[in-house]
Amino acid sequence: MIRQRIRRIKAIAWKEFIQIKRDPRSLSLALGIPIFLLLIFGYGLSLDIDNVTTVVWNQDASSQVSRDFLLNFKNSKYFKIVSYTDNYRDIERMINNGDALLALIVPKDFSHYVESGKTAPLQLIADGSDANTATIAIGYVRSVVSNYNIELLTETFNKKGLTFIKSLDVRPRVWFNEGLVSTWFITPGVIAMIIMVISALLTSLTVAREWERGTMEQLISTPVKAPELVVGKFIPYFLIAFFDLLVGLIVAKFLFNVPFRGSYLLLFFLSALFLTGALSQGIIISVVARTQLMASQLAVMTTLLPTILLSGFIYPIFNMPKALQVVTYFIPARYYIVILRDLFLKGNGILTLWDEALFLFLFAFVMLALAIRKFKKKVA
Questions:
Q1: pTM of this prediction?
Q2: Which H or E run includes 343?
């Protein structure tokens, strides 16, 4: 009995392999899109904000003090001075047109204020249409001004023969991502997104394709049982999705230089659980939809949007409204992204990741059981 089941599963799997081979579009979808998305997200999506476009109006241009002050911005990688002007009209035009994000106005008596030890007013205009970027850019300006103030105090005390004592000396040390490279944070999330979307999308088309082409009736008439049919269709796409995972690992490690500090064995085991759940979810969608168009749309809506918006891939979960935070507990990509980031950057083991692993096991078990139960060998 067991041998017969294995033979039937092998036959279904081989049939699906032949079907994939005869459909180059599905094969290119499975192999080409992951690489394309990795490159697009890896190079195009960055949370690092450098080269903030800045326009400067130095009303005290004749003084060396103001020019030295502006050198702090010119020599910083965080700012890119795109223009110098002498009126507000140019500033308004450049910010309105998006040519500059910041405008820095140095008052005409700036050197007098500095040399006399008074507080110098410095005007900063920021384009707030992108609130997050504007907030970060303003923080950069405050950091430059703070460092400049410390230099002035140190210079003043040295001239008087005194020692300037700072009350606090912060010495930050960043663990796991010393250079604060956003690509190291983004790439594991991209891998999780690709695996989730591609897995569900590929299997969502399998059963629907059988119904559209009229071959499902032939399968129903065979002695192949529903669980065997589901598992047989599951195996080829599991291997393809696992290949996509390997491609993602290679691209992350050798192209984006993301370090991998964890266990490869643990990664493959937990990824297998995640793949099982994602592929089974696609089969459920395929059984329900009955058409490839509807199946593909449902697969994208139920995987892509939740993974991007509610998994912590880009937006931190703790910053979401409480109601949405509750919803994120039902998004499997949330747990897989935590696993990938921990294995890549922190090197944690199963003792740290056991709760995420438990949820992935439940996700895989429930989805596979539902896929087997939902599929019935009936014409209608």
A1: 0.82
A2: none
